[in-house]
Amino acid sequence: MNITVLALEGVFDTGLAIVLDALSTANELAAMHGWSNPPFTVSVASTRRRVKSSQRLSVPVLPLAECPQPDLVIVPALGYKMPEALQEALARADVVEACEALRAWAAAGVRIAAACIGTFVLAESGLLDQHDATTTWWLAPLFRQRYPAVRLDTSHMIVNAGPFVTAGAALSHIDMTLWLIRQSSPELAALVARYLVVDSRPSQSVYIISDHLAHSDPLVERFDRWARQHMTEGFNLELAASALATSKRTLARRIHEVLGKTPVTYVQDLRIEQAVHLLKTSSNSVDRIANLVGYADGVTLRTLLRRRLGKGIREIRSA
Fold it and tell me: What is the pTM of this model?
C-alpha cells in the first residue's frame, strides 16, 4: 500500500513520528513473522521543498509531484494548539495548496485520514462537509464555528466516514494509525499495539475538560458556573435561563454552538465528570457519590458511566 504522509510547515513532531514509527514497526513485524501482508510504502511529502517541524527540526520531504500515486493520504497535526495561531496557519499559502491537493486525491478515490489539528486542514478543504468527524477536543468550539457543515462528535477517538477518517487530540495519531493497519490485518495491528504498549482508547470523552470548553464563550461560562453550583438539584432550563438573564432558546442555541450538545447533556457530563473525580479521590460509596452529583441512586450513575466512558466502576476506582 502506498501511503503519503502530508507534512506541512510546523508539523507536530510527535504526531509525525508516531505515524512513521507505527507503520515501520508494522512492516518489521510482518517480515519477522513471515506474514504475506503487502508492506506499507511510505512517502513524506509536502507542498514545499523544505519543512521544519513545530520544534524546528528539519523534515526530509518529497515534492508532491515526485510521490507515487497514494492509496492513502495521512495528514498529521500542525503544532498550533491555540485558536489564534491556528487560524493564522490555516490561511498560509502552503495550507491552501495542500487543500487543493487533498481535493484532487479525493476526486481520484484516494482515502484520506487526519488526526488532531490535521483535521482542520482536511475540513478546510471542504471535503468533510456533510460527513461525520472528530477533532481535538479543546478546539471543538472553533471547529464548529469554522466548519458548520461538518457533523462533529468529539466523544469518539476515531470516526470513519467512508473515504475520510478523523482522529481526536494529539496522541490519537497512534489510534488512527493502528486503525488503518487493522484494515489490512487485524492480527498485525494487535501485534504492533502490543510491541508499542498501546491500549485501546475508543473514546476521548474521559479526557475532555468541560471547564476549558465553557470558557470559550461568556454565556456558556456563566452557565457552567451556575450548573456546578446547582449540581445536586434537578435541572430546569427555564430556571437556568432566568438566572442568567437570557431566554431558554438563546441559552440552548449558544450551548449547542459552542459545545455541540444540549444543556441537559452538558449538565449530565458535569455530573459524570465530578462523579469520576470522587470515585478516584474519595472512599464514598457509589450511592453516596450519586447523591452528591444530583442522582437519586447509584444504579443511574453506574449506567451512565458505562454508557459514556465504556468503563466499569471498578476500573475507574483503580485508575
Answer: 0.75
Strands 151-152 and 158-161: unpaired
Lowest mean pLDDT of 203-207, 249-253, 305-309, name the range.
203-207
Per-residue pLDDT reduced to its tens digit, 151-178 = 999 888 999 999 999 999 889 999 999 9
Q: Which residue has the higher pLDDT, 300 or 86?
A: 86
Burial class (CB in 10 A: 0-12, 13-18, 19+), 261: middle
> How many CB atoms sit inside 10 A of residue 34's CB?
6
- 130 and 71 housed in the same domain: yes
User: How distant, in Å, are the alpha carbons of 151, 181, 194 from that of 187?
Assistant: 32, 9, 11
Neighbours of 246 (CB within 10 A): 17
Task: Please identify, among 206, 240, 265, the residue that sits at the C-terminal boundary of a domain.
Answer: 206
- Using DSSP's 3-state secondary structure scheme, residue 71 falls into coil
- Scored b (16 or more CB within 10 A) or e, 73-100 reads bbbbbbbbbebeebeebbeeeebeebbe
For 117, what's the count of Cα atoms within 13 Å in the CB-facing half-sphere?
27
| Secondary structure (3-state) at 196 | coil
CATH code of the domain covering residue 243: 1.10.10.60
- Whether 194 and 46 share a structural domain: yes
Report the greatest alpha carbon distance in the chain: 68
Closest CA to 158 of 137, 139, 141, 135: 135
